[in-house]
Design goal:
The structure is a single chain. This protein is α/β, with parallel strands linked by helices and 417 residues long. The protein contains 11 helices and 20 strands. It has a 10-stranded mixed β-sheet, with helices on both faces. A hairpin with a 2-residue loop joins strand 3 and strand 4. The structure holds guanosine-5'-diphosphate, 6-O-phosphoryl inosine monophosphate (IMO) and magnesium ion (MG).
């Protein structure tokens, strides 16, 4: 009855999808609990690439099942599209998924609002345009629509009418899809999901199911993009922390492991502070070798060096108990690699930022370590030991390529050296 949460330890795209997919065979349920289709989680199934935006990274022809938990914001059109694409390769796969009817829906309006808001901002965030901020805003302001509202069509229509009325005042008539059309579309999508075999099952209906079995929680984004503790306002609007497991009735105390996925260097998509960012021929090479282009938007990811103060901050804020390191293979062949060990803030070097604002003013302090020709080399082992000693979180697994089986325990790596 193992329960493990996998969360991003940086600014997202650390390889969570691959890591979750690797562990998926050991778990009966894989649960997404936050975020929406802003996520892009890349997995390989029988050497074929899939990018999951909403679907948990189950093994489609394995025994495990996927659950979309209540902390998510779900775009039903996107969900249907993703499921249909997967079902074309794995017929009947829809029946392996259940969605909590308490999830909030991302409506067509939210995507329009996302674009309009970005245009109005003096400093745009560089959102994914997937309607995430406006959907979470409607949740907090109590105008949102939940999946369970689609089963009470009268109530759905009334709520949509009212929300449309308010939004058209706020957005001066710029939104285009009238509520009757939205309602009809949502009902159509609900019925398509039913046809695909998806179950609408709340965490309450699940009763003791999750408690009596093994559950792997799949985080989205990364701690530094968390709404509360990330580099606000350049963050997403949901929780990126392990705490999100509460949406299916668990406390973090009940988790056996909170595994932070850590890329051997750092990337970020969109705007916001990034102390170790470097634009040089070396980091451009890393971008190309690491295929650092957004899985959701295709934007080039900003690239920089490993940031230990950022990792220490993430480890404390999200209670990380282990690390999985990914993409060190991308650094193969570099003579040296830079690692940021401290932030100089107001002339004083600090190990860790105390507030999210410190990321905006930090100047990185670097050490330079010897590079490695391959991840079997002792210099990579030293790199990992350095991270462990500096952050006080053990690295348990190493991912050395995008394919699911390109992963091993650190102990095995040491034995094979
Ligand atoms: P996620 O959002 O955290 O799931 O990560 P993404 O899927 O957005 O981005 C990670 C990218 O790196 C994907 O293209 C993966 O296929 C790839 N990837 C994951 N782990 C490794 C690794 O260890 N080495 C290499 N070279 N690529 C990896
Ligand atoms: P995964 O799960 C990387 C970033 C966006 C933008 C900010 C706000 O694949 O790691 P939003 O659309 O959420 O309002 O955008 O957050 N962002 C991500 N960056 N990986 C992600 O998810 C992200 N999800 C959102 O680029 O800067
Ligand atoms: Mg991603």
């Amino acid at each position: 009855m193992r329960r493990v949460a996998v969360v991003g330890a940086q600014w997202g795209d650390e390889g969570k999808g691959k890591v979750v997919n690797y562990f998926a065979k050991e778990f009966e349920w894989i649960v997404r609990f936050a975020g929406g289709a802003n996520a892009g989680h890349t997995v390989y199934v029988h050497d074929r690439k899939y990018v999951n935006h909403l679907l948990p990274c189950i093994v489609p022809d394995g025994p495990g099942r996927g659950f979309l938990g209540a902390g998510m914001v779900v775009d039903l059109q996107q969900l249907v599209g993703e499921l249909e694409a997967l079902a074309a390769d794995f017929p009947g796969v829809g029946a392996k998924f259940a969605v909590d009817p308490e999830v909030f829906l991302v409506l067509p309006w939210h995507k329009q609002q996302d674009i309009l808001l970005e245009k109005m901002r003096a400093a745009p965030i560089g959102t994914t345009g997937r309607g995430i901020g406006p959907a979470y805003t409607d949740k907090a302001s109590r105008e949102g629509i939940k999946l369970c509202h689609l089963f009470d069509e009268q109530m759905l229509k009334e709520r949509l009418e009212n929300s449309w009325h308010m939004k058209q005042i706020l957005y001066q008539g710029q939104l285009t899809m009238p509520p009757a059309e939205v309602a009809a579309e949502l009902i159509r999508l609900r019925d398509r999901l039913t046809k695909l075999g998806v179950q609408f099952t709340s965490a309450v209906d699940m009763g003791n199911v999750f408690r009596s079995t093994s559950v792997l929680f799949e985080g989205a984004q990364g701690v530094l993009l968390d709404l509360d503790f990330g580099t606000f306002p350049f963050v997403t609007s949901g929780s990126c922390m392990a705490h999100g497991v509460s949406s299916v009735g668990f406390s973090t105390f009940e988790l056996d492991d909170v595994a932070g996925v850590l890329k051997a260097y750092t990337t970020r998509v969109g705007a916001g502070p990034f102390p170790t960012e470097e634009d040089s021929s070396v980091t451009q090479g890393i971008r190309e070798r690491g295929k650092e282009y957004g899985a959701t938007t295709g934007r080039p990811r900003r690239v920089g060096w490993l940031d230990l103060p950022g990792l220490r901050y993430a480890a404390i804020r999200s209670g990380l108990t282990s690390f999985v390191i990914t993409k060190a293979d991308v650094l193969n062949g570099l003579e040296t690699v830079k690692v940021c060990t401290g932030y100089r803030i107001d002339g004083v070097v600090r190990d860790i930022p105390s507030t999210s604002h410190d990321f905006f003013v930090a100047e990185p302090v670097y050490v330079e370590l010897p590079g490695w020709p391959s991840t079997n080399h002792v210099n990579f082992l030293k790199y990992m030991t350095f991270i462990e000693e500096q952050v006080h979180v053990p690295i348990t697994y190493i991912s050395y390529g995008p394919k699911t089986d390109e992963m091993e325990t650190k102990d095995n790596l040491i034995m094979s050296m």
